[in-house]
C-alpha cells in the first residue's frame, strides 16, 4: 500500500476528451451508491484534486447534454472547491448562452437570456401541456440555515400554450416576481 505521507502533497488530475456521459452514469450506478436517469452527450475538460486538503479545480463541458428526454444543449461547469463551491454553470443552445449561474460563498446569481421554454417540454408533456416561448431575468440565490432563498424576477413570454384539459390555446406575457417568502405575478396578459 502506498505511504499516505507521499500522497499528502500530490495532485490527482483527470482529463476528459469526449467521454460518453452514459459511461459515467454506468460507473456511478455500478458503485451501488446512486441511480441516475439516462444520460447522453460527451464530457470534455479537466478536474484536479489536491489530496492534502481536498481542494479541487475543475472546468468541464457536457456537450449535447441530455437527461432522459430533456435536451440541455451544452452545459459548462467551472470553479473551485475549497470550503464550498465557487464557480459557474452556463448553458448554451447552439452558439447562444441561455443560462448562467455564478456561485460564490453560498450566494449565487442566475440569469436567463431568452431561455426557451421548449427545454421543459418533456417535463410537462405528461400533464398534457405544450408551449413555446422564452424566459428572461435574474434571480439571486442565498443558502443560509440549510435552506435556499431566492429574490428576483423572470419575464415570461409564452406562445402557443396548449392545455389539453381545457382544449384551449393561449399566449401568456408577464413578469414572475420571486421573493424570500413569495412568488407572484402583478399582471399577466393571457390571449
Descriptive notes:
A hairpin with a 2-residue loop joins strand 5 (about 85-95) and strand 6. The longest helix is centred in the N-terminal third of the chain and has 10 residues, at about 20-30. The protein is built from 3 helices and 11 strands. The model is unreliable at about 1-5 (pLDDT under 50). The chain has helices at about 5, 20-30, 120-125, and strands at about 10-20, 40-50, 55-65, 70-80, 85-95, 95-105, 105-115, 130-145, 145-165, 170-180, 185-190. Strands 1-2-3-4-5-6-7-8-9-10-11 form an 11-stranded antiparallel β-sheet. It has about 190 residues and is mainly β.
Concise synopsis of the structure shown:
Helix content is 9%, strand content 66%. It has helices at 4-7, 21-30, 121-124, and strands at 11-20, 39-50, 56-67, 70-81, 85-93, 96-104, 107-116, 129-144, 147-163, 168-178, 183-190.
Number of strands: 11
What fraction strand?
over 45%
In N-to-C order, the SSE pattern is: HEHEEEEEEHEEEE
Largest sheet: 11 strands, antiparallel
Kindly provide the radius of gyration, computed on alpha-carbon positions and rounded to a whole number of angstroms. 20 Å
Structural class, by secondary structure, is mainly beta
